[in-house]
# Entry
Amino acid sequence: MIFFCVLMVLVFVAQIAEFFIPPLDWMSNAHVYITPVLVFYGAMALPLPLMLVLVFWAGFLLDALTAQVIGGRVEISFGSSILLYAVLAGIMHGLRPLFARGRWEVHCIMSGVCTSALLLGQYLMLSFRRGSIFFSREVWWQIGGPGLLAMIMAPLVFWALHWLARATAYPYLPRRGLI
Amino acid sequence: MSRTSIVALVLFVAGLGYLLSLGVGGTRKLQSSVYQYIAPFLSSGAGLQKQITSVRSNLKSLDDLQAENSSLRLENRSLKATNQALLGVEHEVNRLRHALNYRERAVFKLVPAEVITRDSSTWWRTVTVNRGKQDGIDSDMPVVTDEGLVGKTTTVSANITIVLLVSDENCRVAANVEGTREQGIVTGERVTGGVTPLLNLNFLSKQANLQPGQKAYTSGVGGVFPPGLLLGTVKEFRVRELDGQAQLTPAVDLTKLEDVFVVVGRK
# Structure
């Protein structure tokens, strides 16, 4: 339970920290997303009820801090990020047995894929709302760039959270050694 | 599936359903409450970021400082001279205004604000400023700097406001171009790859033939933005199938915004 609370706090801190990380101009202004990497770790490490709480919290924060109400309409409905997170975290939760065997690379690859999928989902919803869709080089970078960055960050996050889980005596840990 | 999991799933779906069914008012209210609670974190983060940036930018070599000092001395002398000349002009203007019983020109009532976060998400161009309802700010108020238009306010909480930048695709501003009768709508781009975002001035006539360097101002149509605010300068003009479109370089450097003014009314 302590580890779960720590994850909840970390998700909040990461969401705030993302405000202060500037987009990377050498990557077509791709943003750095830390929160999905934490959430997807939680999806693999936590049991279903706690995973759902974590997903709800992360999606709620994302929508509350980024969703836009413009010209008397909501661009992406409040709650849609929760839905996206839930679907992606559900897939990650299904890979829990691999995680339990200490396969860190599953979290690493899936964090990248799911971060990009999250952004792609948002882009599709937004394009549908605005009535036009296009996929330029910049759009692909905005979707794929954060995924690549998440993949790079994932082993570090995995290692840090694994250490935290051990420090808080969280029972669900990979059986094999880390990385 | 265990009983706990089923209960959690039901509660999750109920909560999600409630949030998805929120309308515009509900979403705004919820967002502004969340922003109110996280305002201290954002302000502290912005302060910390400023300190780190200032430490980094203050580390200059002695040669740099000497060069900067002599350049500033020169600029100071030039400004003093200009100021002296302007004092005379000011005196003359005041005297003439008084003589003509001239009415004071209507000026905007501005609330100064500091940008605390910028571009928090991939798909919207926004900044957050440290002023809110307590300072008389409401949604859909223009935000400017001394250089020109920045955008408009969207979600407002007690002491924090989200500003939608003019470079966002959703921020539409009616504009006209200096020296012409051309009118159009300025919008941003959905995704920008470059460092400086560009604006598009759409719905111009095909014969507009705008030249690079011509300035575009707000026309005041629509009611949100007052007329006469500088939007940007024409970079290029192209003729499309049905209309003409000009690409503008924004008057304000939106990537380096620090201090802005919210137009809360007229004096």
In short: Residues 91 and 223 of chain B are 36 Å apart (CA to CA). DSSP finds three helices and twelve strands in chain B. Chain B touches chain A through 53 residues (CB under 8 Å). The two ends of chain B are 66 Å apart (CA to CA).
